């Protein structure tokens, strides 16, 4: 089949959940789409791995957007996969063990419930707490509304139509909280999920935080049976409706003709001809190395790409523990503790513990539980064997100090470091959420869904609204909407 040529309406590069989401929406609108995936299976970071009967979503914790009004559930519903893909609520959404607090903060899966709980704890600030959450919800709504537009229009119209984005576009989370004159203890609880964004509140974009916080505003969930079921269901939908997912198909070039994209060529000599290409993979290496006419990108756009900052990655260890040792554990925990130095001057200040089988009992054999321990890693960090051994020992010692019942009960299964996560996802250095959520790279300052090259679009955590499963599924939906609207 070498040298074959396939004609389609659109080519999607990358079969992660952003690419699959975009392809499914386009297919539903009547387009024939080819999704090209370098790996042997779809899913990207949304992959499930089973070891000795223990099933792990290896790079995903609980996800948002699975309620009846959410982006993930909407995708499942609109593609008719409701009987194939089910969701299990993770409640509390996350439990935070702060260093000096005697009791953990059990964050509810509803922003309204969280606001009410905090209002009872800090009654003098109850109106301000409600105002914070309403502002965050409004920021996400405005960003989603603007993402599908081709242009924002005049400055006065932007300020009128998107008042929250206009007001807070350059704010950090810390600036916003300080402006509300909230006490430190309340700020800490309101900003608890900032760790998910891998930046401290003083560097984290308010808009980036708001998108993350409100993506969990109506619950945190696990996909029953593993998140790969979602990717597989979307791939089947595409195949059943005239589109396709072509795995083990590494793109060699994004082709152009007369100043616009004309398709994609793969390393095995196949050509996929299409007037639309959606890049749902790492943007910077793709545009710098795959575009057959890089001069078509304006220098200003290329320079901006070269300067953009990526997020960090993770080291993750996976374990089996006996059911008796898991008594009292929460399914999704963030634990604040100054840990030892791993490499150079880097010393993690938090680690994460996930016990998915507390939510989905089928994830572990009878009498056992799955357990993951992870720490965030700085951007660009590589961990050799010795550093991985130190990470493993450090995490095991830390979790036993916090939860003594786990002592001597943790059976090692496997580990993933940034290098392995890079190989799985194709993200440079295994970066977890695309571009870092700084004020300079969030909101309308993030890469748009459209590009300066006609017919070339972006989907995924490199574009709006940002990182995380709910956000990338949303980006796929918005990208498809922009394509459909431009061809009406």
Q: Helix fraction?
A: 25-40%
Please state the average pLDDT score.
93
Give the overall shape, derived from the CA principal axes: globular
Number of helices, where a helix is a run of at least 4 consecutive DSSP H or I residues: 15
Q: What's the end-to-end separation, in Å?
A: 35 Å
> How many domain modules?
3
Name the CATH superfamily classification of the largest domain: FAD/NAD(P)-binding domain
**Strand-residue proportion:** 15-25%
CATH class of the largest domain: Alpha Beta
The CATH topology of the largest domain corresponds to: FAD/NAD(P)-binding domain
From the 3D coordinates, which CATH architecture of the largest domain would you assign? 3-Layer(bba) Sandwich
Segments where pLDDT lies below 50 for 5+ residues? 150-154
Characterize the main sheet: 7 strands, mixed
Which structural category fits the helices and strands?
alpha/beta
DSSP strand count: 20
Task: Tell me the layout of helices and strands.
Blueprint lengths: L4 E3 L2 E4 L3 H12 L4 E4 L11 E4 L2 E4 L13 H8 L8 E3 L4 E4 L7 E3 L3 H11 L4 H22 L7 H7 L1 H6 L4 H7 L4 H7 L15 H10 L5 E3 L4 H13 L3 E3 L4 E7 L2 E7 L4 E3 L3 E3 L3 H7 L9 H9 L5 E10 L9 E5 L13 E5 L13 E10 L7 H18 L8 E6 L1 H8 L30 E3 L10 H18 L2
Parallel strand pairs: 1-13, 2-3, 2-14, 3-10, 7-16, 14-20
Antiparallel strand pairs: 4-5, 6-9, 7-8, 11-12, 12-13, 15-18, 15-19, 16-17, 17-18
Please characterize this protein's 3D structure.
There is one protein chain. With 488 residues, the chain is an alpha/beta fold. The protein has three domains: 5-44 and 223-309 and 433-486, FAD/NAD(P)-binding domain, CATH 3.50.50; 110-219, no CATH class; 312-428. 33% of the residues lie in helices and 19% in strands. The protein has helices at 17-28, 71-78, 111-121, 126-147, 155-161, 163-168, 173-179, 184-190, 206-215, 228-240, 283-289, 299-307, 385-402, 418-425, 469-486; strands at 5-7, 10-13, 33-36, 48-51, 54-57, 87-89, 94-97, 105-107, 221-223, 244-246, 251-257, 260-266, 271-273, 277-279, 313-322, 332-336, 350-354, 368-377, 411-416, 456-458. The strands form five sheets. The protein has a seven-stranded mixed β-sheet. A five-stranded parallel β-sheet has the order 10-3-2-14-20. A hairpin with a 2-residue loop joins strand 4 (48-51) and strand 5 (54-57). The model is unreliable at 150-154 (pLDDT under 50).
């Amino acid at each position: 089949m070498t040298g074959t040529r396939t004609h389609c309406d659109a080519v999607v590069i990358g079969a992660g959940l952003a690419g699959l989401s975009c392809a499914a929406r386009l297919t539903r609108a009547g387009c024939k789409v080819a999704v090209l995936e370098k790996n042997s299976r779809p899913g990207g970071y949304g992959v499930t791995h089973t070891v000795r009967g223990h099933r792990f979503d290896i790079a995903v914790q609980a996800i948002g957007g699975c309620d009846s009004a959410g982006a993930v559930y909407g995708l499942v519903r609109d593609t008719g996969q409701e009987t194939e893909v089910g969701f299990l609520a993770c409640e509390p959404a996350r439990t935070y063990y702060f260093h000096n607090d005697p009791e953990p903060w059990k964050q509810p899966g509803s922003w309204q419930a969280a606001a009410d709980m905090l209002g009872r704890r800090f009654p003098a600030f109850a109106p301000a707490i409600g105002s914070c959450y309403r502002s965050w919800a409004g920021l996400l709504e405005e960003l989603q509304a603007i993402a599908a537009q081709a242009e924002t229009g005049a400055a006065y119209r932007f300020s009128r139509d998107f008042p929250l984005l206009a007001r807070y576009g350059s704010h950090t989370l810390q600036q916003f909280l300080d402006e509300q004159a909230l006490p430190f203890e309340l700020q800490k609880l309101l900003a608890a999920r900032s760790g998910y964004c891998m930046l401290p509140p003083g560097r984290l974009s308010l808009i980036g935080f708001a998108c993350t916080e409100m993506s969990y505003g109506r619950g945190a969930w696990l996909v029953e049976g593993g998140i790969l079921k979602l990717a597989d269901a979307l791939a089947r939908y595409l195949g059943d409706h005239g589109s396709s997912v072509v795995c083990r198909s590494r793109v060699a070039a994004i082709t152009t003709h007369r100043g616009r994209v004309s398709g994609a060529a793969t390393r095995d000599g196949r050509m996929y001809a299409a007037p639309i290409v959606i890049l749902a993979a790492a943007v910077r290496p793709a545009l710098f190395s795959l575009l057959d006419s890089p001069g078509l990108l304006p220098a200003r756009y290329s320079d901006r790409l070269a300067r953009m900052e990526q997020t960090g990655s993770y080291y993750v260890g996976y374990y089996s523990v006996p059911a008796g040792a898991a008594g009292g554990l929460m399914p999704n925990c963030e634990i604040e503790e100054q840990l030892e130095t791993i490499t150079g001057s880097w010393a993690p200040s938090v680690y994460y513990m996930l016990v998915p089988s507390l939510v989905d009992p089928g994830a572990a054999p009878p009498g056992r539980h799955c357990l993951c321990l992870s720490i965030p890693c700085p951007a660009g960090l590589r961990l050799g064997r010795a550093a991985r051994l130190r990470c493993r020992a450090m995490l095991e010692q830390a979790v036993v100090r916090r939860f003594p019942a786990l002592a001597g009960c943790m059976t090692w299964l496997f580990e993933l470091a940034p290098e392995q996560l890079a190989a799985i996802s194709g993200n440079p250095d295994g970066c977890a959420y695309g571009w870092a959520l700084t004020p300079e790279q969030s909101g309308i300052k993030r890469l748009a869904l459209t590009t300066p090259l006609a017919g070339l679009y972006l989907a995924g955590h490199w574009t709006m609204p940002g990182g995380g499963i709910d956000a990338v599924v949303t980006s796929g939906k918005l990208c498809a909407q922009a394509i459909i609207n431009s061809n009406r």
